[in-house]
Design goal:
The complex is a heterotrimer. By secondary structure, chain A is of the alpha/beta class. Helix content of chain A is 19%, strand content 22%. Chain A has 4 helices and 7 strands. In chain A, the strands form 2 sheets. Chain A has a 5-stranded mixed beta sheet with strand order 1-2-5-4-3, covered by helices on one side. Chain A has a two-stranded parallel sheet with strand order 6-7. By secondary structure, chain C is an all-alpha fold. The chains are: A alpha/beta, B mainly alpha, C mainly alpha.
Chain lengths: 181, 409, 357
């Protein structure tokens, strides 16, 4: 299938850079309202993000936001879209990167080794949407409590669903201390 | 007095196994109900004597489902929810969300609306900083400082109440403009109160900035380097205190900020004292911005006039049938921004408050996402705190300015 | 009538009456008044009105009834004891502070003696040493409370309290060495009488604060740290360890800790006045040679009370003006800065006395 990026006469700079550097990975792109957006293939995520962070021509030092959108009501397949926002301080531009995931296999590589902030953002995304980030050291729920059932921000999670009652739990001590009081 | 954090690996290597009373590690919950954990967060802290060797934060105590709720509302109904996000600077959230949806529409608010948004936004920023500085000073022990700042904050909240009708739940901006205009005599009242706030700032500055006890408590506490701050995604006063001059109003100017002249204070070390100084200076800069904006205030409408986007003026609504029909349709059916997605960032009290909105052309939002600035700060809390003493948790946490509504949404 | 005078001249009866007088008419009333005055005077510098709502019918007394209201409220609260705490130590801990605070009034003279009758409960030879002994007793209160409540915050508070109080006692003694050298005695009444002499004829009284300025500062700092008041209230935490060593106490036991703290404030003020500000001697009153004795005594008691209230006010203002020290900074201040200073003070005083006097 011909690469849609290569057929456009004029590409925004970053999209051109990415499609040149990683041919065949750019699925879609747009620049709606001035926000440069690139949709890439799932397998290329880690390479692309590493390139974005390290290469001198883009140099995205900051990962601003990591979230997901559920297009269940629009009946779209792939259902989920994981959205990354980056900001470069040296060049001053922003980029939105998207990865599309289907409901049957909502797994994507974790990029927690590239930016420290990603740790909790991925946990929150997992908590809210059920998207599994492979390679994340501690993918547990963040905003919800551990015994919560379901993933709240999915469109098929009803607003008024009741959760089962949780038993009172003890805090586990990782270290034992010398004397019991 | 050496405030530099200890080397934890070295220290842990020296720890004896259990049954030795001199060096055993104890788990303390600096727990959710604690006077210093405003906004509610829980830190499971592992201490050796008074030295912190590990810390695990736990958040989500104030999660109210802002994003889920906004998916089940109309676009305009989300604006009151945004008040409750960063509840010490609600107008900045209102402005951020409205500008994000205006970006989806591709419209801009009229000039007068933009200038009034700048004034109200900066007032909100001042109240945010006053609350943060006051609360953290109170926890360090300077209770009087807190009460003087609260007094100054009261002057400003009375102003906000004159314009929006409420001190905290302002619900003031609409898509393409604002709900209400500034009342008569507001700008003179504003100037008077700003002068009083300036006096309070001078007094409080004299009380704490050169006070040796205060400096000992906050100097070199909780430092974070530039690279770590960038990697953790810090924005706002925390990042500027570490030496990076990133301010959304300067790097991606929005509204009329490119016509106003102000400086962005930048620190060096990134410890709590730098953050305190950066916030104090930002208050002064905000006061100067407000004065400039009120000098340049243009005359004109506060709401655009495009059908389907802007609510018609009340004279039209009660005056002729087209206005009535427009208003009726807009209220009953809701706004319908065209399909697409937009991300708009404003400079909030804590940093970059980014709203990511996705629309599919029907009246229901597909996704409304707030990028919370203090999420990154609490994530970086272990990094800033490990190696310090238990008593240092309080100044560090106070300097973060964690607002529960923004962190947990 | 004669029987009454005979009974009153028994020293034991006199001592008991004096104790009752001092405790019931000076220490306790001022202590409880300070609980309210703390809130009123702090409100004064914070641009607000303190508590003024407690009322009986329509009479509010501008907040004075809050003292009674607080006391009654504490009595009616539930008296908890945490599970796993050491019962005996938990129960006796609140009282050490009270005992120490009240007992330190024993050696404070209120007016000059009339004949053989001294306005002082016990005029013992080692008066100064008695002060040190009694203030060290108050350490037990904090430490036992912290150790016996089965709680980690209380443990942290108790540990901090013990370390802080022990280290500040060390140089409290040294700070008073200078005083001992200047006035030549450890008997408190002799120190007070020594402050009744004047320099340059009848111009400047030889108060402790003029003869030993550094000693005054050190002693006052040490006593403020002993009472664990700001800026030295790390054991009490309040934002880190949420009340520290008296965390698990409620109701009247907590009230006992609070009362002990305020009685200690009054006793600090009384000690400072006695040792450094001339005690009860009204300056330049000896110039009025024809003053009747009873008037002189009343003026002396008045002067003493005014100074005590002033120093209570000063401590309360100090608490609300300065931020708190972190605990290791408190210790560093005590050991590394104030202890050498007190040694320097002692040596310098000795040198000056040797050379000039």
């Amino acid at each position: 299938m011909p690469d849609p990026a290569s057929q456009e006469p004029q590409l925004p700079a970053l999209t051109a850079l990415l499609s040149g550097q990683f041919p065949g990975t750019v699925r879609d792109h747009h620049c709606h309202r001035g926000d440069e957006t690139v949709v890439i293939k799932r397998e290329a995520l880690h390479r692309v993000c590493q390139f974005l962070r390290d290469d001198e021509r883009c140099k995205f030092e900051m990962m601003i936001d990591l979230t997901a959108v559920d297009y269940f009501e629009q009946g779209r397949d792939p259902r989920f879209e994981v959205v990354y926002h980056f900001k470069s301080l040296t060049h001053g531009n922003r980029l939105r990167l998207k990865v599309q995931l289907s409901e049957a296999n909502p797994r994507v590589d974790s990029i927690h080794d590239l930016w420290d902030a990603v740790d909790w953002y991925e946990r929150e995304c997992f908590d809210m949407f059920g998207i599994v980030f492979e390679g994340h050291p501690n993918l547990t729920r963040l905003l919800m409590y551990e015994q919560f059932e379901g993933h709240p921000l999915r469109k098929d999670y009803p607003m008024d669903r009741q959760q089962p009652i949780v038993e009172l739990r003890e805090v586990e001590e990782r270290y034992e201390y010398g004397r019991k009081f | 007095m050496d405030n530099a954090p200890l080397d934890i690996q070295q220290h842990e290597a020296n720890l004896q196994p259990t049954n030795d009373f001199s060096s055993s590690v104890m788990a303390i919950e600096i727990g959710p109900s604690h006077p210093a954990m405003h906004g509610i967060v829980r830190f499971t802290t592992y201490v050796d004597g008074e030295l912190i060797v590990d810390m695990i934060p736990e958040i989500g105590y104030l999660h109210r489902g802002f994003e889920k709720e906004s998916e089940n509302s109309k676009w305009i109904q989300v604006i009151p929810y945004t008040d409750r996000l960063n509840y010490v600077s609600p107008l900045l959230n209102n402005i951020g969300y409205s500008m994000a949806v205006e970006k989806l529409y591709g419209v801009e608010a009229p000039r007068r609306a933009e200038f009034t948004r700048v004034i109200m936004g900066e007032i909100s920023r001042i109240t945010d900083h006053l609350t943060c500085l006051g609360a953290s000073a109170m926890e360090v022990g300077a209770f009087t400082f807190f009460l003087w700042f609260i007094k100054a904050r009261e002057y400003l909240w009375e102003l906000v109440e004159q314009v929006t009708g409420a001190r905290l739940t302002t619900n003031w901006t609409r898509f393409g403009g604002n709900a209400t205009d500034l009342p008569d005599g507001f700008l003179d009242d504003l100037q008077e109160r700003l002068d009083k706030v300036k006096e309070v700032m001078v007094e409080c500055d004299r009380l704490l900035t050169k006070n040796k006890i205060f400096i000992d408590r906050v100097k070199d506490i909780g430092p974070i380097s530039k690279e770590d701050a960038l990697s953790f995604g810090f924005t706002g006063p925390m990042l500027r205190a570490s030496g990076v001059p990133y301010d959304v109003r300067r790097s991606d100017p929005y509204s009329v900020y490119d016509e106003l002249d102000f400086e962005v204070p930048v620190g060096t070390v990134g410890d709590c004292f730098d953050r305190y100084l950066v916030r104090m200076e930002e208050v002064r800069q905000s006061i100067s911005i407000i004065e400039q904006a009120s000098d340049k205030m243009p005359v004109g409408p506060i709401m655009g006039s495009e059908r389907g986007v802007h609510y018609p003026d009340k004279k039209e609504v009660y005056g002729n049938i087209e206005g009535l029909i427009d208003h009726f349709k807009m209220v009953m059916e809701g706004h319908r921004p065209p399909a697409g997605e937009a991300y708009h960032a404003v400079e909030g009290g804590n940093g970059e408050v980014g709203f990511y909105v996705v629309s599919d052309g029907s009246g229901d939002p597909v996704r409304v996402r707030l990028r919370p600035p203090c999420f990154n700060f609490v994530e970086a809390m272990p990094k800033m705190t490990i190696g310090h003493y238990v008593a240092d948790i309080v100044p560090i946490f106070g300097s973060i300015n964690m607002i529960g509504g923004e962190l947990d949404r | 009538m004669d029987l009454l005078i005979e009974i009153l001249s028994i020293p034991l009866v006199q001592a008991i009456l004096k104790i009752v007088f001092v405790i019931l008419l000076f220490a306790m009333p001022l202590g409880t008044l300070m609980t309210l005055m703390e809130r009123k005077w702090s409100a004064m510098i914070q641009d607000r009105v303190g508590p003024n709502r407690a009322n009986v019918g329509n009479y509010t007394g501008r907040g004075l009834l809050h003292i009674a209201a607080d006391g009654l409220k504490s009595i009616f609260k539930e008296d908890t004891m945490p599970e796993g705490s050491d019962r005996f130590l938990y129960l006796i801990a609140p009282f050490f502070g009270l005992i120490a605070g009240v007992a330190s009034f024993a050696i404070i003279p209120f007016a000059s003696p009339i004949g053989d009758f001294k306005f002082q409960v016990a005029d013992i030879e080692p008066g100064l040493l008695f002060i040190f002994a009694i203030t060290s007793l108050s350490v037990y209160g904090a430490v036992l409370a912290g150790a016996s409540s089965n709680s980690k915050y209380a443990l942290l508070g108790g540990t901090r309290a013990s370390a802080q109080m022990l280290s500040y006692e060390v140089f409290m003694g040294l700070a008073l060495m200078g005083l001992f050298m200047v006035y030549g005695s450890t008997r408190v009444s002799e120190i007070v009488d020594g402050q009744n002499t004047y320099w340059f004829g009848s111009l400047i009284p030889k108060w402790g604060v003029f003869t030993q300025p550094l000693g005054f500062v050190l002693f006052f700092t040490a006593l403020v740290a002993e009472t664990k008041r700001a800026p030295f209230d790390a054991p009490e935490g309040e934002s880190e360890i949420v009340a520290g060593y008296f965390l698990e106490y409620s109701g009247m036991r907590w009230s006992a800790f609070m009362l002990a703290e305020y009685v200690a404030v009054v006793s600090v003020a009384a000690l400072t006045t006695t040792l450094f500000f001339g005690g009860y001697h009204v300056p330049w009153l000896h110039l009025w040679t024809s003053a009747p004795e009873w008037l002189v005594r009343i003026l002396q008691v008045l002067k003493f009370s005014v100074f005590v209230v002033f120093f209570c006010w000063f401590q309360i203002q100090l608490r609300w003006t300065v931020p708190k020290f972190r605990f290791d900074q408190t210790m560093a201040l005590g050991w590394k800065k104030l202890l050498p200073l007190s040694l320097v003070n002692t040596v310098a005083t000795a040198a000056i006395i040797l050379i000039f006097v």
